[in-house]
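Memo to structure team: turn this sequence into structure tokens by end of day. - J.P.
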Amino acid sequence: MPSCEAIRLPAPRIRLVSRPVRRQSLGTNKRSRTAVHESGHAVIANVLGYGVDFATIRPSPKSNGVPACTGSCGWMRPANVPVRDEVLINLAGELAAGKLVGHKPPCERKYCEDFHTAWGLCCSESDTVYRSVRQLETYYDVAWDLVCKHWPVIVDLAEQLLARERITGADVVATVRRHRGG
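Reply from structure team:
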């Protein structure tokens, strides 16, 4: 049965495009890792109560002859979003990608851009480097627990993202709701 995806056009028109959704099983290739990464951000943002506008994956120029993939996730950040929530959402992407390949990534600032952003947020809230490190480690463990708890939802959403390369906030809400049994 085909599903419908809303495609944004210049306001106020919205056009519905119907196309079948083929499930694609996740592998550990770069495209799958990127889909899981972006799905991790989207699901955890939704679980924490924030709206998600979209998540995408797309090919990017080859790096040293290896096909590469990049992605993005747009979630709705209110002006007063707590640092804790923003850090958890930032960490969720790379932690989900790590879980896909079977390990919990190290909690290191140099590991990826999302960790670097999370580190900067923790530094903005703490008065010492020691407190910032402790805070980041605490948030890291909380984010890992959230990713593990919501892993089936993240995988389901990643499979949709692999099939269509773009999912909407409505897709995220529907997937989370389906897994919660509502």
